[in-house]
Design a protein that fits this description.
The protein is mainly beta. It has a seven-stranded antiparallel beta sheet, with helices on one face. Strands 3-2-1-9-10 form a five-stranded antiparallel beta sheet, with no helix packed on it. Strands 5-6 form a two-stranded antiparallel ribbon. Strand 1 and strand 2 form a beta hairpin. It is extended.
């Protein structure tokens, strides 16, 4: 068993226990420059610094491969705002701290019961730099998986928001009031 990639507590591997493989990775480094007019009239370019690096990838999940697609997606949404190093083939890839900034579920197939049978989860990780964040992470919580959460970033669970639409509906008193009254049974 070889682990293809790892971020925080999440791993991608193809083995007898688990089929989870990355489809591909997009990464980039970009120079942040500023153009201003020189006194002679020719444009002058001033190099400021490197922009924050980003890393994005996607992977397929399927119920037939032993993955609860909805559960996997919801577990990722709870990690938004956390940061950790990303490892590819056992070596760190990219900057030392990558923050999970976006999670998307697409290309889904849903059965007659509303279960998600398969889908594609897309992940965006952005370099985490304390000085670049609007709220400096003077304190951060750490989990057993090695991921850290930036200060000032709350998850759905911490805000008391359920990421499932299954809990939305009429109250039991509303249901009772709308229940049809069968006059044949009241004798």
């Amino acid at each position: 068993m070889a682990i293809m990639a790892k971020w925080g507590g999440k791993t991608w591997e193809v083995s007898s226990r688990k089929i989870a493989a990355l489809n591909g990775i997009s990464a980039g480094v970009e120079l942040d420059t500023e153009n201003s007019d020189d006194k002679a009239g020719s444009p002058a370019t001033k190099t400021k610094a490197l922009k924050l690096q980003s890393l994005s990838f996607d992977f397929d999940v399927a119920m037939v491969a032993g993955t609860d697609v909805r559960g996997e997606y919801e577990s990722w949404t709870e990690l938004v705002g956390n940061y950790a190093p990303f490892y590819l083939a056992g070596r760190r890839f990219g900057p030392p701290k990558l923050q999970l900034t976006a999670v998307k579920l697409s290309d889904t197939t849903i059965d007659d019961f509303g279960r998600i049978l398969k889908g594609k989860i897309s992940i965006t990780l952005t370099e985490y730099a304390e000085e670049a964040s609007s709220k400096k992470a003077t304190s951060s919580s750490s989990s057993s998986s090695g991921t850290k959460k930036a200060a000032g970033v709350a998850t759905y669970k911490e805000l008391g928001i359920s990421s499932s639409a299954a809990s939305i509906g009429a109250s039991s008193s509303d249901k009772a009031a709308r229940k049809p009254n069968n006059t044949q049974l009241t004798k």
